Amino acid sequence: MNHHFAELGDVWKHLPLAEVLRVNPPRLYWETHAGSASYLLTESPSRLHGALRFLALAPDDPALEGCAYLKALMDVPGLYPGSATLAMRALGTSATYVLCDVDPESAATLRAAGAGLDVRVVDTDGVSAIEREAHLARVNARDVLVHVDPFDPFERVTPDSKTPVELAGWLADAGYRLMYWYGYDSVERRGWARDVIARLAPHAELWCGDALIPASLVYPERSGAWGCGVVLANATAEEVRACERLGRGLERVSETDVVEGNDPSRLSFAVMA
Fold first, then answer.
1. pLDDT along the chain (273 residues), means of 10
2. What is the pLDDT of residue 3?
3. From the centroid of its chain, how far is CA 54?
């Protein structure tokens, strides 16, 4: 269960993910931390700065008005699609899916949402499950998009298992298409996941789009900075251009969402090199 659904961190996860799925549909989609299939899009202070604000303003932005994420939000009003649902709606029967989540209720919603599709839901540790899948599956790595979105990027479930960020680096270096989402809570950590994955995957082509955000827009009780980003590995130039365009669009529609006296005072987007 993702308790931060439809908040700004989710927006700058699902916005690029939905576009990558549209621009370059994979034949296989694997996810380590899938969460629930969907959530009721109710109001909360942080959602009013997140998906609900995006829904209100994106139709008037030239970079966002036709994006896949906005279309997904508008397709079923009042229901927020999880990442796995974005993938299943975008790819349908043209892809096969491995979706992992340790929460039994979330896993049950994924099975229900995947009825009629070639979906395998794994309700054990997703990092170990996807590593095993990559070892055993006889597939071209470029045909697979792996979405890694961990609660704790450095969690090691067993002494022999990889952490989520280690898995991301290993997959990227092996040529898999990868989208890795990360968060941070100090400006000094901005873009940290790109640096770690670059060290682990010296042969991979990486792109990183990062959103630095006033912390109170996501956590109302906090001040200062919070942020999140996505690292794409082995993406096409078209995917990279699309994601940067969307990041700039998100920055534009956030220009008037200002927290006076805070540093930062508004969301800013940057491509991290």
1. 89 98 98 98 97 98 98 97 98 98 97 98 97 96 98 95 98 98 97 98 97 98 98 98 98 98 98 95
2. 79
3. 16
CA distance 56 to 241: 24
- Quote the CA–CA distance of 8 and 271 in Å, as a whole number: 17
Q: What is the C-alpha radius of gyration for the chain, rounded to an integer number of angstroms?
A: 17
How is residue 173 written in tokens? 């270096």
pLDDT for 1: 60
**Helices H / strands E in the chain, number of each:** 10, 10
- Given a contact cutoff of 8 angstroms between Cβ atoms, the answer to whether 93 and 117 are in contact is yes
SS (HEC) of 4-17: CCCCHHHHHHHHHH
Residue 162 tokens, joined = 């990889």
Residue 271 vs residues 40, 74, 186: alpha-carbon distances, Å? 32, 28, 17
Token pair 């209100």 in the structure block, residue: 56
* Bridge partners for 212 per DSSP: 227, 268
Exposed (0-12), middle (13-18) or buried (19+): which is 202, by Cβ within 10 Å? exposed
- Sheet of 225-233: strand order equals 118-122, 96-100, 28-31, 144-148, 177-184, 225-233, 206-214, 268-271
Q: What is the pLDDT of residue 2?
A: 74
Q: What is the pTM of this model?
A: 0.97
Which domains are seen in the chain, by residue range? Answer: 8-271 (3.40.50.150)
The answer to whether the beta carbons of residues 35 and 82 sit under 8 Å apart is yes
How many C-alpha atoms does 173 have within 13 Å on its Cβ side?
13
